[in-house]
Amino acid sequence: MLSQTTEYALRATICLAYSREGLVSTSDLAEQTKVPMNYLAKVLQLLARSGIVTGRRGVGGGYKLTRPPEQISMLDVINAISPIQRITSCPLELKNHSGALCPLHHKLDESIDILIKHFTGVSMADLLGQRGDSRPLCDEAMTARVELTLGGSN
Amino acid sequence: MLSQTTEYALRATICLAYSREGLVSTSDLAEQTKVPMNYLAKVLQLLARSGIVTGRRGVGGGYKLTRPPEQISMLDVINAISPIQRITSCPLELKNHSGALCPLHHKLDESIDILIKHFTGVSMADLLGQRGDSRPLCDEAMTARVELTLGGSN
């Protein structure tokens, strides 16, 4: 549903939200997010352009969030990479549709609105909080704990 | 959000639902849906493979729905072209995610589930009924009426 680039942007933002202080280097972030470093660098540039992260080049450089995780929604990050667009006129550019969407496009627009509301309601802090003090992206210890909780076989 | 092929499939199914009796030729359907005929032929083959439409070749041939519009959901048509998949394991195939999705993937899966429920709840009949007895896809008369209702400038 979302592009791989958008998912990588979400993973990077979550990791920056988890690392509460100071700058995180692109190489550390690449290791945490499992995203190739060159690819991640481009993603971080898009996030910086949208004012979600700010960075400093050179030795000791890296990136950090520009505001608290509670104030960054999933939609903010998604829209920084490829904005979710409502359907305001016929996507097929049919002249007859321009003045009034047909029922199909009304329903499709409704589904986009539902998604926008869903992603607006989830902050980066929500994505950190769900598993206590564990890393935001799965690690061995956390995975084991969760599998145990879920009655898994590990 | 949906591919163009999926949208074309929805438009074709709606037009077949609107034409309640007999077979509709691919050329008539191409005119009604504004879809190139060769492209539409491939879309109809996919819909037939999923048991949503049935067709007959040759003179007097064409396509029709296999069941009433009330019994065909938007999800049925979408899944006939490119199925909406829930996230049951890490999309990035990270070993550590296999046992338990991280909060991000839980939330992404939640959004997919919301979409599935939305598209399951809308039938082809719903897409016909919203504008009385007009054609399901905008036509001049219907567009004019709706613009008038909406206080449009036409």
Please provide the count of β strands of chain A: 2
Percentage of residues in strands of chain A: 5-15%
> Rg of chain A to the nearest angstrom?
19 Å
Task: Name the largest protein-protein interface in this structure.
Answer: A-B, 51 and 50 residues
| Biggest beta sheet summary of chain A | 2 strands, antiparallel
Helix content of chain A: 40-55%
Residue-averaged pLDDT of chain A? 83
Instruction: Please report the distance between the alpha carbons of the first and last residues of chain A.
Output: 31 Å
In DSSP terms, counting alpha (H) and pi (I) runs of 4 or more, how many helices of chain A?
7
Order of helices and strands of chain A: HHHEEHHHH
Return the CATH class of chain A.
Mainly Alpha
Give a description of the structure:
- The structure is a homodimer of 154-residue chains.
- With 154 residues, chain A is mostly helical.
- Chain A has one domain (4-150): Arc Repressor Mutant, subunit A (Orthogonal Bundle).
- Chain A is 51% helix and 5% strand.
- The first copy, chain A, has helices at residues 4-18, 26-33, 37-49, 74-81, 103-120, 124-129, 140-149; strands spanning 53-56, 62-65.
- A two-stranded antiparallel ribbon of chain A has the order 1-2.
- In chain A, a hairpin with a 5-residue loop joins strand 1 (53-56) and strand 2 (62-65).
- In chain A, helix 1 packs across helix 3 (37-49) and helix 1 packs across helix 4.
- The longest helix of chain A has 18 residues, at 103-120.
- Chain A starts with a helix and ends in a 5-residue tail after the last helix.
- Chains A and B meet through helix 1, helix 5, helix 6 and helix 7 of A and helix 1, helix 5, helix 6 and helix 7 of B.
